[in-house]
Amino acid sequence: MKVNNIIIKGMLVVSAASLTACSDFLEEKNWSSQSAEEYYETATGFESLMNGSYATLKTVYNNLDYFKLTQLGTDLGTQNNGTTTSDLNQYVVTYTADNSSVYNLWKNLYTSLKNVNAVIDRSATVKTLEQDKFNGMKSELIKQHVAEAKFLRALYLFEIVKNWGQAPLILHEPSSASTTGELNSASEFYEQILSDLSDVLSSDLPERQPASNFGRVSKSAAKHLRALVLLTRGYQSFGQTSDFQNAFADAVDVINNSGHKLLDDYALVHRQSNEANDEVVFAINFNNSNNYMNNLSTEHWLFSYREGWEGLGKSNFYGNDYGSVMPTKYSYLLFDWKKDHRTEVTFMSPYNGNPATSIDGRTLGRNAFMNTDQLEKASDLLADTVIYFPVPGETGFRKYSAEEQKTANTSSPMKFIYNYPEGSFSDCSNDDYYITGMQGNSSTTRAWLPVYKFKDAGIKYNEGSSGVLNGSRDIVLFRLAETYLIAAEAAVKNNDNANALKYINAVRKRAMNGASETGLSLYSGVVTIDDILDERALELFGEAPRWNDLTRTGKLAERVLKYNWDVTHISGGLIKTQLSKETEAKYSLRPIPRNWLSTLSNGQELGNNPGWD
């Protein structure tokens, strides 16, 4: 079991009550004689408050709404339903300020912000050991916890400002309910974020946390975040001329001086048995106890595999299917199956079907879905293939004809064959992955080669009230490969092409290691923002918030309309997308949720983001 001293202890914060409690908190202790204020003045109480703030990271990032908002409606992610419109994917007229995913992310961020503000505000009243040798806390540790909380506050404020632009800038724990609100400007948000991160970097936190504190904030994590914040502000009209230069300096400092390093093998970055590795700069901890086995991200890229395929049922091998996003055709065509090792690691493939190399150490990562009834009963995990996805990386890869597919489908046992996309990304009409109803019983959903690099061996589907035991893998928020790509992007904006080539090619070179063929080309000539976005796609597919990458760089309309075929073709294009170069400014911000505005006496006076009224 991994060290999880952060999450296991930290569930006493009231607003984190929706998270499952740990057995440590079931021990009988009599706190009835203490008020909340008195309790949080003690070392035990303040520690619980701090650890509860870490726990709320799950509320934001281990969440389907966050996943949909960051991956749908981009050049890389599209909808799994092939017949109806999706507000977030297609930017249609039904996408309004009433959108539930937008409101849920807003609510979760402000709930989490309340917790970290409580740590910062209450730190002044915590008893030190000099004041109370039995219940006090070391002064140095109090200061460290304040620095950790300021990092988390900067992280949440950054999520708010890059999604909404203007919003309430809440910097204190609320003492009473408020019926009015105000919207602070984006520039005010960035000033506060950078102030908080400056405090973190002036603190006594270590440059890199030791293994015993894996998952806690470090100065390297703060510097990585500051580099991304400065990079993002640099694109804004109120950005400072030095933002790109400073972002580059921070990123290079983390690369050279943090003690983190790129692993030689991309597969080892994502292998479940190697989670706490040198490349991870900051991650959200999970573990494999029943109370904490709740990482949902492993299931987000999985299609509904139970609808219409004989022999495929709810299974501990594949986990339940909650997927709501599938890769665009452009995503598949972007990857090189033979020269770029990241491809066979990212997707289901023969590589992931070999326990010695697979991400989760099992055979079920092969590019096929096997009869789950047979798998559950067979100790050797041999079973008939139900759905087969030929991939360019396997021996003997070829395209199967329509007649061969029909024959396989009607034979006994049946086998459904889904050919890998080919041709131009601008037309998906004849690609198997984007055709609905091929499996017979379901006329709306699609089947596609799943993203596999997040797969978790411990997922279990339990019938009845116990439901699904989800993953125990960590969610990696920052890793050093992204730091390299931040440096490369900042160099592009600084017109420093030599360093742009240096840092983007460092990531590219690592991708060659372990590939079945040599010859993956490096970048040459002038590096562009599109090059950066393509390399971020290959390296950070499903990890980085792609929608924010596109809005940061001003590429949302251009790349979505060019690379996401569904945006203009679902329902035969009868329901038109509202996204265009003219409306890009509107759709580069989320609407301020009407649910929140309606609770305020001055909600109508506040208005909304431009175009969302």
Could you explain how this protein is built, in words?
The longest helix is centred in the first third of the chain and has 26 residues, at 139-164. The termini are far apart. The strands form four sheets. Strands 4-5-6 form a three-stranded mixed beta sheet. A two-stranded antiparallel sheet has the order 1-3. A two-stranded antiparallel sheet has the order 2-9. 49% of the residues are buried. The protein has 613 residues and is mainly α. It has helices at 5-9, 36-40, 43-55, 57-61, 64-71, 87-90, 100-122, 139-164, 186-201, 219-234, 243-257, 266-270, 329-334, 341-346, 372-377, 402-410, 480-493, 497-512, 529-540, 546-553, 556-563, 566-569, 584-587, 594-597, 603-606, and strands at 77-79, 280-284, 325-327, 368-370, 385-388, 416-417, 460-461, 468-469, 475-479. Helices cover 39% and strands 5% of the residues. Strand 5 (385-388), helix 16 (402-410) and strand 6 (416-417) form a beta-alpha-beta unit. It contains 25 helices and nine strands. It is globular.
